[in-house]
Amino acid sequence: MATTAHLFEEPFDADEYIERLAWRIPGGGSKGGAEAFDPKRLLEEFQNHIEELKQLDEKIQRKVEKLEHQCHREAKEFAHKVQDLQRSNQVAFQHFQELDEHISYVATKVCHLGDQLEGVNTPRQRAVEAQRLMTYFNEFLDGDLRSDVFNNPDKIKEAADIIQKLHLIAQELPFDRFADVKAKIASKYHDLERQLIQEFTAAQRRGEIGRMREVAAVLLHFKGYAHCVDVYIKQCQEAHVKEKLDGTRHSDVEQYLKNLYDLYTRTTGLATKLTEFNLGSDKHTFLSKLIKSIFSSYLESYIDMEREYLRTRGAMILQRYYDSKNHQKRPVGTGSIQELKERIRQRTNLPLGPSIDTHGETFLSPELVVNLLQETRHAFERCHRLSDPSDLPKNAFSIFLLLVEHLCVEHIDYALEIGLSAIPSSDAKNANLYFLDVVQQANSIFHLFDKQFNDQLMPLISSSPKLAECLHKKKEVIEQMEVKLDTGIDRTLNCMVGQMKHILTTEQKKTDFRPEDENNVMIQYTTACSKVCAYVSRQVEHVRKSMDGKNVDTVLTELGIRFHRLIHEHLQQYSYSSMGGMLAICDVAEYRRCAKDFRVPLVLQLFDTLHALCNLLVVAPDNLKQVCSGEQLTNLDRNLLHAFVQLRVDYRSARLGRHFS
């Protein structure tokens, strides 16, 4: 294998190189290849290759020495060239220095000559200017302004320059001799100043920035230049405000109110920052008047537009919700006839009109409520910012009335009316009672309403007479809703009791408590009891989910009392054998277990007493008096005890009545 430098290029692996060399030698591989392994031949080849490597090393070394010698020679040549360039640069720098000195000398001569010329020309120009001003002054003195500069509107800039100089000159003249001419010059001065400001205003309205710059430069030397600045600022604000507001005032009231609030807030914020600068002693008054001049026409009509927007927006939100439910709002009756019907319904539970089926729909929408409260919150924020302090309580109250109308009357009160109409009569079979769901959602919504009342409305009216009106209105709304809630809950409880009564009527049999085979009673309690307890447990859970706070105990107490009354009256409809009495006691024990779910001590106490009364159905005749004197029965009316004893089938045969004589 020929030995060349490219065999040692990176990456170089010595082991691989030796292996490759040995492999290519006949008989030198580890397995011998086609021939047997020959170590002598392999040694000989390695020795030859080592000699070749030595020769290659010497050749490369000579080449390296040659390249190093060439590099040293070229380095010396480059150093000589750099020295020659440095000497040339030094010569060039000396020439530039001499040229700079010559230029400075010439410039000094030119400046000196210019000064001499200016010294000659300036007095001449001043003389010409003075002569020109004297000519114009004579025209004012004669009262006849003949020069074209004062009569040509296109030369107003030149005229302004002349009148400004004449005005300065006139101030130095004695008043007694030149009073008339001074007055004429002053009149012309103010007239031109007014024309320039008008021209500046017109150019700003046309958007001609160049013309504005030109007129402002002329006005800079007049006393009214500050007025020019005021006009510019006012025009900028009015143009921006009109652009933002006038375009949406009638086409998009919502955007108009948002823009008005945003612009007014940013403007007042800017005014607050400007008060930090030295704008004079009455800077607050000045800034307030400036803001009022810009927004007065919009603020005067603000609350009317706010109310109209809220009225329209609220009606749209309501209608959109009822449309999504495919519901046509029913007219809610008002007046004395409706009130009379409601009173009769409350007292008798008679169906005074058709009961509607809402299919479980409460017609109360959290999303709708959030939208209404959100709109009202924005309205209160705008009212706080945009209303005059003296009108703020009145305006806030008017917004509150719209919230009451849309949220409390048109939505909550309407849902309560629909819910009341959907409550079935107390004798309805398998009635679905959704009014408690209405109660739950109405309470949640009113909590949100109350929170907004306290958070957003109260700070706006807390120190005004409107506070009493707002509190009275809120109380009135609460009382109206509570009346309907109480009515609906009462009628719902009646329906629950009616459903229990229906179960007892259809499931309870007379033979339950007078079995034909007294010795073969295998049940723990009757089917009627089981179904009633299951129904009551569901309703108790429903009440707990629908109510909060003390309302839970109040409603469950009333339901428990009615539940007890129903069972008490139901048990008095049957006569009891000894085994039937035991079964009645088991039923009442199950009713009492169900009553524990109420978590109301009074209800549990009533069923404990009823359980004790049922013991009178099974106790031995001789022990009746002792049982009636027990702790739970001793305070009861003797007639009630006697009535229960009369339910026993052995009442007459055992002459039990003598124990109550």
What's this entry about, in short?
This protein is mainly alpha-helical. It has helices at 14-24, 39-142, 148-151, 156-170, 175-206, 209-219, 225-245, 253-274, 283-300, 302-324, 336-348, 366-386, 392-422, 435-461, 466-507, 527-546, 550-571, 578-596, 601-614, 624-628, 638-645. Helix 5 (175-206) runs antiparallel to helix 6.
Into which percentage range does the β-strand content fall? Answer: under 5%
And the CATH topology of the domain at 508-659?
Methane Monooxygenase Hydroxylase, Chain G, domain 1
Supply the CATH class of the domain at 508-659: Mainly Alpha
Helix content: over 70%
Mean pLDDT: 82
Rg, rounded, reads 55 Å
Indicate the CATH architecture of the domain at 508-659: Up-down Bundle
Shape: flat
* Record field, number of beta strands: 0
Structural class: mainly alpha
What is the count of DSSP helices, taking H or I runs of 4+ residues?
A: 21
Give the topology string: H per helix, E per strand. HHHHHHHHHHHHHHHHHHHHH
Q: Which residues sit in consecutive blocks of at least 5 with pLDDT less than 50?
A: none
Distance between the termini: 143 Å
Main sheet record? none
Please provide a written account of the structure.
This protein is mostly helical. Among the domains are: 38-119; 508-659, Methane Monooxygenase Hydroxylase, Chain G, domain 1, CATH 1.20.58. Helix content is 73%, strand content 0%. The chain has helices spanning 14-24, 39-142, 148-151, 156-170, 175-206, 209-219, 225-245, 253-274, 283-300, 302-324, 336-348, 366-386, 392-422, 435-461, 466-507, 527-546, 550-571, 578-596, 601-614, 624-628, 638-645. The longest helix is centred in the first third of the chain and has 104 residues, at 39-142. It is flat and about 155 Å long. 22% of the residues are buried. The mean pLDDT is 82.
